[in-house]
């Protein structure tokens, strides 16, 4: 058990049977009445974000999340197969569990699987990945007054805004948190 007074960003807790990670919190001491903690929590099972208020000093369950290294092997329809890097056990996740992550996953890519008491909650991607441009328009010369960009489609199907000098077959470094172009690799 953990007191809500000890909340930290990134802490994982169990509230009413669901697993949450603390995104933001604020201790509030009003002039009249009891102190409380206002928090923003992300549900790790379905990805929803909720705002909850707790009384100061209230205790809730601490959720110990396990991270293991796995390799992404292949996709077969809606199922995506991964292999544990230590035990070589294979398991599958449905496309619904990996909606955002599928924009960055390539075969043989190493990622971390997030689980709680044997239940797989999702995967953690590296902060940036290298992806190859498969389709983009040629840059138009003279159209560069202030950081002009164009659309580029990378090998996973993600569309990214890139500078005009990027061409097909270039390998780009893409931020996985926002899906934005960082630089050429």
Automatic annotation (TrEMBL):
<dbReference type="InterPro" id="IPR008991">
    <property type="entry name" value="Translation_prot_SH3-like_sf"/>
</dbReference>
<dbReference type="Pfam" id="PF01132">
    <property type="entry name" value="EFP"/>
</dbReference>
<dbReference type="InterPro" id="IPR012340">
    <property type="entry name" value="NA-bd_OB-fold"/>
</dbReference>
<dbReference type="InterPro" id="IPR001059">
    <property type="entry name" value="Transl_elong_P/YeiP_cen"/>
</dbReference>
<dbReference type="InterPro" id="IPR014722">
    <property type="entry name" value="Rib_uL2_dom2"/>
</dbReference>
<keyword id="KW-0648">Protein biosynthesis</keyword>
<feature type="domain" description="Elongation factor P C-terminal">
    <location>
        <begin position="129"/>
        <end position="184"/>
    </location>
</feature>
<dbReference type="InterPro" id="IPR013852">
    <property type="entry name" value="Transl_elong_P/YeiP_CS"/>
</dbReference>
<comment type="function">
    <text>Involved in peptide bond synthesis. Stimulates efficient translation and peptide-bond synthesis on native or reconstituted 70S ribosomes in vitro. Probably functions indirectly by altering the affinity of the ribosome for aminoacyl-tRNA, thus increasing their reactivity as acceptors for peptidyl transferase.</text>
</comment>
<comment type="pathway">
    <text>Protein biosynthesis; polypeptide chain elongation.</text>
</comment>
<dbReference type="GO" id="GO:0043043">
    <property type="term" value="P:peptide biosynthetic process"/>
</dbReference>
<dbReference type="InterPro" id="IPR015365">
    <property type="entry name" value="Elong-fact-P_C"/>
</dbReference>
<dbReference type="Pfam" id="PF08207">
    <property type="entry name" value="EFP_N"/>
</dbReference>
<keyword id="KW-0963">Cytoplasm</keyword>
<dbReference type="InterPro" id="IPR011768">
    <property type="entry name" value="Transl_elongation_fac_P"/>
</dbReference>
<dbReference type="Pfam" id="PF09285">
    <property type="entry name" value="Elong-fact-P_C"/>
</dbReference>
<dbReference type="GO" id="GO:0003746">
    <property type="term" value="F:translation elongation factor activity"/>
</dbReference>
<comment type="similarity">
    <text>Belongs to the elongation factor P family.</text>
</comment>
<feature type="domain" description="Translation elongation factor P/YeiP central">
    <location>
        <begin position="67"/>
        <end position="121"/>
    </location>
</feature>
<dbReference type="InterPro" id="IPR020599">
    <property type="entry name" value="Transl_elong_fac_P/YeiP"/>
</dbReference>
<protein>
    <recommendedName>
        <fullName>Elongation factor P</fullName>
    </recommendedName>
</protein>
<dbReference type="InterPro" id="IPR013185">
    <property type="entry name" value="Transl_elong_KOW-like"/>
</dbReference>
<dbReference type="GO" id="GO:0005829">
    <property type="term" value="C:cytosol"/>
</dbReference>
<keyword id="KW-0251">Elongation factor</keyword>
């Amino acid at each position: 058990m953990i007191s809500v007074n000890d909340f930290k960003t990134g802490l994982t807790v169990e509230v009413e049977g669901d697993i949450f990670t603390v995104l933001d919190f604020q201790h509030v001491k009003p002039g009249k009445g009891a102190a409380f903690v206002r928090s923003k929590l992300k549900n790790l099972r379905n990805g929803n974000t909720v705002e909850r208020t707790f009384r100061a000093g209230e205790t809730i369950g601490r959720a110990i999340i396990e991270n293991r290294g796995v390799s992404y092997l292949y996709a077969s329809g809606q199922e995506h197969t991964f292999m544990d890097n230590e035990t070589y056990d294979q398991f599958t996740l449905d496309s619904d569990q990996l909606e955002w992550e599928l924009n960055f996953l390539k075969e043989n890519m190493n990622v971390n699987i997030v689980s709680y008491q044997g239940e797989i909650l999702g995967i953690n991607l590296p902060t940036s990945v290298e992806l190859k441009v498969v389709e983009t328009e040629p840059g138009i010369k003279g159209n560069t007054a202030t950081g002009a960009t164009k659309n580029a489609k990378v090998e996973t199907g993600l569309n990214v805004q890139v500078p005009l000098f990027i061409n097909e077959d270039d390998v780009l470094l893409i931020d996985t948190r926002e899906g934005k172009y960082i630089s050429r690799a």
